[in-house]
Design a protein that fits this description.
Helix 2 packs antiparallel against helix 4. It contains five helices and seven strands. It is α+β, with helices and mostly antiparallel strands. Strand 3 and strand 4 form a beta hairpin. The strands form two sheets. The protein has a four-stranded antiparallel sheet. Strands 2-6-5 form a three-stranded antiparallel sheet, with no helix packed on it. The protein is rod-shaped. It has a domain of 91 residues.
């Protein structure tokens, strides 16, 4: 109300004019010329404002006394209603806390079960990885052992082949030496046979010369003092007396007879000698034939031996070639076996890889099944939560949304739907009212306290909130809007 400063000359006049439409507020104190009329007009304006009527002079619809009674009644009603609301709120808080505790217990149980199953799966996976690694190491060791064994066998085969080559070459050298010795022996025997033939020819020639000398001795004088030849006898006959002719004739006859006998004898001897010579020639020819036959036989034998040696050498060459081919076949077989073993090891490794991949697929399927089960359980919890929330008659709307992303969202970050930051999968309702009176916010079934320094507060935009703690991907956020 305006203060009054009385001025007799100006304040009294013009008091019949009034107004009850002045602007209320602090400016009313200094409205107009601050006369009594202004003060009265200020009072009229305040009376009009208090009565609520069209003008200040109209009687109010409700008196101050009536207002006091109505106020008392309203206070009583409000206190009673507030008591009922307090009781209902306490009951709902107790019920909600019980349900939230149950949901939290179920969630903790599910988290523990899921973590246990994940630990078992992780342990099984680690065991399988360790087993697969051990098997791969064993296969690698077996492969290395087989490679070393194959290398050793190949080295032994190569050594045996080298030894066989050396042995074959040694035998061939011995055979060549035997052939050379046989050739030398045959040549020596042939030389001896040739010397014997020459000696026999010389002996036969000498015997024939001796026989010729003996015949010549009969015909010619050999001993001058002896009458021992036909020549001497003829000379003696010619020089002797004719008386001696008879004797000489007789002697000549005797000598002739003797000569005939000697001739016969000599002829016989010569015949014998000739026969002996012929025999000797036959014998020598026979011996030469035998020697020639022996030589031919020796040549044939030597040729046969050489052919046999050639056959033996060919056989040895064939045997060595066959042995080399056999060794080559053995080496090829071992190579094939080693290749087959390596292929078998490759198959075993491929089979193990397939088995490991199959087990990993089974583990992945189990993880997917567990994820589906956990998702289903979360959906069941969400459904139960939704059913619980459905019992709140005062609710006008509810919004469910899930925190997105791959890592935790820092405290104090705006949580908004796709229309904003996009870290929620559904847009939040506009939160322009009183956080404590108009909204309930639940995170994973737990009611959050609103306000600065509490669990959450309004975000930068109308459709966002900020949490006082980090939010994790998969957290379920529910906003209930009340009328």
């Amino acid at each position: 109300m305006a203060r009054t400063f009385i001025n007799q000359s100006t304040q009294i006049g013009n008091s019949e004019l009034y107004s009850d439409t002045l602007t209320t507020g602090a400016g009313l104190e200094f409205t107009g010329s601050v006369t009594i009329q202004d003060d009265l007009n200020a009072l009229r304006t305040m009376v009009k404002a208090v009565s609520g009527e069209a003008n200040w002079y109209l009687a109010p619809t409700v008196s101050l006394f009536g207002l006091s009674g109505s106020l008392d009644a309203e206070i009583s009603r409000a206190v009673s209603a507030e008591l009922v609301l307090t009781n209902d709120l306490s009951t709902e808080v107790a019920r909600a806390e019980s349900v939230e505790a149950e949901l939290s217990n179920d969630l903790s149980t599910e988290v523990a079960r899921a973590e246990s199953v994940e630990a078992v799966l992780s342990s099984d996976l680690s065991t399988e990885v360790a087993r697969a690694t051990s098997v791969e190491a064993e296969l690698s060791s077996d492969l290395s052992t087989e490679v070393a064994r194959a290398g050793s066998v190949e080295a032994e085969l190569s050594s045996d082949l080298s030894a066989e080559v050396v042995r074959a070459q040694s035998v061939e050298g011995e055979l060549s030496a035997d052939i050379s010795a046989e050739v030398a022996r045959a040549e020596s025997v042939e030389g001896e046979l040739s010397a014997d033939l020459s000696a026999e020819i010389a002996r036969a020639t000498s015997a024939e010369a001796s026989l010729d000398s003996r015949v010549d001795n009969v015909l010619s004088n050999i001993d001058p003092t002896a009458l021992d030849s036909l020549t001497e006898i003829v000379s003696a006959f010619q020089s002797a007396d004719s008386d001696l002719n008879g004797a000489i004739t007789s002697l000549a006859t005797a000598l002739a007879a003797d000569l005939s006998s000697e001739v016969s004898r000599a002829t016989s001897v010569e015949t014998v000698l000739s026969s002996s010579i012929s025999s000797e020639v036959s014998r020598a020819t026979s011996v030469e034939t035998v020697l020639s036959s022996g030589l031919s036989t020796e040549v044939s034998r030597a040729t046969s031996a050489e052919a046999s040696l050639g056959s033996v050498i060919s056989t040895e060459v064939s045997r060595a070639t066959s042995a080399e081919a056999s060794l080559g076949s053995v080496i090829s077989t071992e190579t094939s076996r080693a290749t087959s073993a390596e292929a078998s090891l490759g198959t075993v490794i491929s089979t193990e890889v397939s088995r490991a991949e199959s087990v990993e697929a089974v583990l992945s399927a189990d993880i997917s099944t567990e994820l589906s089960r956990a998702t289903s359980a979360e959906a069941s919890i969400e459904a139960r939560f939704s059913t619980e929330i459905a019992g709140l008659d005062a609710r006008t709307s509810k919004t469910f949304t899930v925190v997105q992303g791959l890592s935790a969202i820092a405290a104090g970050t705006d949580l908004e739907g796709p229309a904003g930051a996009g870290n929620l999968d559904v847009n939040l309702p506009a939160m322009t009212g009183d956080l404590a009176a108009d909204y309930d916010v639940f995170l994973n079934g737990m009611m959050l306290r609103p306000g600065s320094g509490m669990d959450f507060e309004k975000g930068t935009g109308d459709n966002s909130i900020k949490l006082a703690f980090p939010a994790s991907p998969g957290d379920l956020l529910c906003v209930v809007v009340y009328s």
